[in-house]
Specification:
It comes from Actinomadura rubteroloni. This protein is α/β, with parallel strands linked by helices. It contains nine helices and 13 strands. α2 runs antiparallel to α3, α3 packs antiparallel against α4 and α4 runs parallel beside α5.
Length: 296
């Protein structure tokens, strides 16, 4: 099956600064993939490159097997600020969508705005943040895309509105076999929505894969203080912290942890993301926590 996104050595530079660098990643089709990273990590840049809004400074990107420009009719992109025309009404946005998109589903768009209680005569500039986000999502879904790109589209919503946003997204995925790539810093939302994860840090991909496989392949090790370089081959240390007599590490490995000196624990999704984003451990030993508290 054709991947929803593939990139090889992909980069985008602004002046001397690389917003995205040496990005090589493959995301299978049929996934709801979460793109997570700190502000400035390159999430929006990667989505804009995938949408054809930006041209690469280096490398190659393919969306649904082709260059982004060749897939515009089958890709919907909802940017971070839910871009709408403030002076146009809800109904006018739907009419504009019908003119611009050959696969436009007018019945779906009308039914969804009615269900959300969006007044057709109300101008977009007078809608609440949650209503604007829902209208932008409606425009994206009514395009009937094969791939939906979402850039922090629910970040500004309250918890109830985010729940409704997620429900609408998952409903579309289930009904239409839609693939989704969404950027968010809300790890709890990703955990409820996504089955694939890409972590970016400093403009580079740190880890990518199906979430179940990633969680199964990472462990938290706690035990006597030890140099990470002494761990057996095949145990890759993602993050580590050391107290006077104790070490705590997040490791990636495909095999069992056989050393009886280690207490082996599971790693949650948020722990995994934090470890790759910042190098912080998933758990600090008690002595280290006390030392930090004393310094504070």
């Amino acid at each position: 099956m054709t991947p929803l996104l593939e990139a090889w050595g992909l980069g985008r530079r602004y002046g001397r600064r690389w917003a995205l660098a040496e990005c090589t990643v493959r995301i299978p089709a049929g996934r709801v993939a979460g793109l997570v990273g700190a502000n400035g990590a390159g999430k929006s840049t990667l989505l804009a490159l995938a949408a054809g809004m930006l041209a690469p400074s280096a490398g190659t990107v393919r969306v649904l097997g082709e260059r982004p420009a060749a897939r515009l009719a089958k890709v919907a992109y909802v940017a971070q600020d839910a871009p709408l025309y403030a002076g146009l009404t809800v109904a006018e946005h739907l009419r504009l969508g019908a003119r611009l998109n050959p696969r436009w589903d007018a019945a779906f768009a009308r039914a969804r705005t009615d269900r959300l209680g969006l007044d057709p005569a109300r101008r977009a500039g007078r809608l609440s943040g949650g209503q604007r986000a829902q209208l932008a999502l409606t425009l994206g879904l009514a395009k009937r895309p094969e791939l939906l790109l979402l850039d922090e589209s629910a970040a500004a919503l309250d918890p109830l509105a985010r729940r409704d946003f997620r429900a609408a997204l998952l409903e579309a995925v289930a009904a239409d076999g839609l693939s989704v790539l969404l950027a968010s810093h809300l790890v709890a939302d990703l955990e409820r929505t996504c089955d694939h994860l890409v972590v970016l840090a400093d403009g580079r991909v740190r880890v990518s894969g199906d979430i179940d496989d990633l969680l199964a392949g990472h462990h938290r090790l706690t035990g006597p203080r030890r140099d990470p370089g002494t761990l057996p081959r095949g145990q890759h240390v993602v993050a580590a912290v050391h107290a006077a007599r104790q070490s705590s590490m997040v490791v990636r490995t495909d095999g069992p942890i056989l050393d009886p000196a280690w207490e082996v624990g599971e790693v949650g999704l948020e722990d995994l993301v934090i470890a790759y984003m910042s190098g912080e451990p998933v758990a600090r030993p008690a002595a280290a926590r006390a030392k930090l508290a004393w310094r504070a």
